[in-house]
Specification:
With 325 residues, the protein is α/β, with parallel strands linked by helices. 44% of the residues lie in helices and 18% in strands. The strands form three sheets. Strands 2-1-3-10-4 form a five-stranded mixed beta sheet, with helices on both faces. A four-stranded mixed beta sheet has the order 8-5-9-11. A two-stranded parallel sheet has the order 6-7.
Length: 325
């Protein structure tokens, strides 16, 4: 009898020791290259989580679209062939239309307001909604306020945009924004340097870090500080994978990706003033004070489009618009 109890005790100890020491291996995908905003989140998460877990959680970051474009990455997250990803908010709207609300034009006044909303109850509601599409929404990191560049002419008003062929993400709302502004929106996966260089497209729209890291100052002459959309990244995990983790691992991963996101937001914002100086020094002609009122007027009707006809989406848009007034 004693021997039986002893054996059972040893088996239990070994079982629990094995469970405690079990490694969690995470494939984390981003579409951009090292030094980019998504990569900063991913790399900081890897650094933090491997230290905080004493090496029991390991992360391999796949960058530069090595696992596909953003839509393809999200499809693989759904299937749990990729466990985590940092993806621009735009491509999510084909998976869950509620994400269209965070890409609504001229929604957020500044960074502080974006943080207040996205880190608060409304942001949590959006992240929770992603579970319907088999994503575990973890938090929001930052792409930044988007600005227009082109190689044809300076843009100060919407009239100057007419006919420009502008690259946009595979996002219904982003296409609608540029169509309303008079451009010819052209969905195209990342990267787009060659297409800009060869004149396949006239311009694009992205935050300042993109102009720096991807050297768009070499191939784009004009930039306008439209700040037309505050572009976030949504940091997600595969819901199937997430549900298989222990509560302790879930809690650690959740806290750590948020800390990495906050680090990245602060890092991004601290560099923007110098980026603008550098882009001018590189020869870009910058329109710093476009007619924002005219831009707003052109896109004001988007809230009444079919894009927002889903009652859940419309209700969320109404709540966020009320909170940002």
């Amino acid at each position: 009898m004693r021997r039986s109890v002893f054996c059972m005790t040893i088996i239990a100890v070994l079982f629990f020791a094995g469970a405690a020491m079990a490694e969690v291996n995470i494939k984390l995908a981003v579409v951009t290259k090292p030094g980019s905003a998504q990569n900063i989140v991913a790399d900081k998460f890897k650094e933090f989580i491997e230290a905080r877990s004493n090496g029991t959680i390991k992360v391999k970051v796949y960058h530069s679209a090595s696992l596909g474009n953003e839509t393809e990455i999200l499809q693989q997250v759904q299937m749990n062939t990729i466990q985590m990803a940092v993806v621009t908010g735009g491509p999510f709207d084909t998976f869950d239309p509620i994400t269209r609300v965070i890409n609504y034009p001229f929604l957020f006044k500044d960074n502080a307001q974006a943080d207040e909303i996205l880190d608060g109850p409304l942001g949590a509601e959006i992240l929770k909604s992603l579970e319907h599409s088999k994503f575990k929404g973890l938090c929001f990191s930052e792409n930044g306020f988007r600005n227009l560049t082109n190689n044809k002419r300076p843009v100060g008003t919407p009239d100057d945009i007419k006919g420009l062929k502008i690259r946009v993400m595979a996002s219904t709302i982003h296409q609608a924004i540029w169509k309303a502004l008079g451009a010819n929106p052209t969905p195209m996966p990342w990267p787009i340097y060659t297409e800009l260089e060869q004149g396949v497209i006239d311009g694009q729209e992205n935050p300042l870090w993109v102009m720096e890291v991807y050297k768009f100052y070499e191939i784009q002459k004009y930039m306008t500080l439209t700040r037309h959309v505050y572009s976030c990244h949504i940091d997600v995990a595969s819901l199937d994978w997430w549900n298989g983790l222990s509560p302790a691992d879930q809690s650690l991963i959740q806290r750590t990706i948020y800390d990495a996101a906050v680090f990245q937001r602060q890092d991004n914002r601290s560099k923007n003033a110098q980026r603008l100086v550098m882009l001018k020094e590189k020869g870009m002609q910058v329109v710093e004070a476009p007619d924002i009122a005219a831009f707003r007027a052109k896109v004001a009707g988007l809230k009444d489009m079919d894009l927002y006809s889903d009652p859940k989406v419309k209700a969320m848009l109404d709540k966020i618009m009320a909170a940002t007034r």
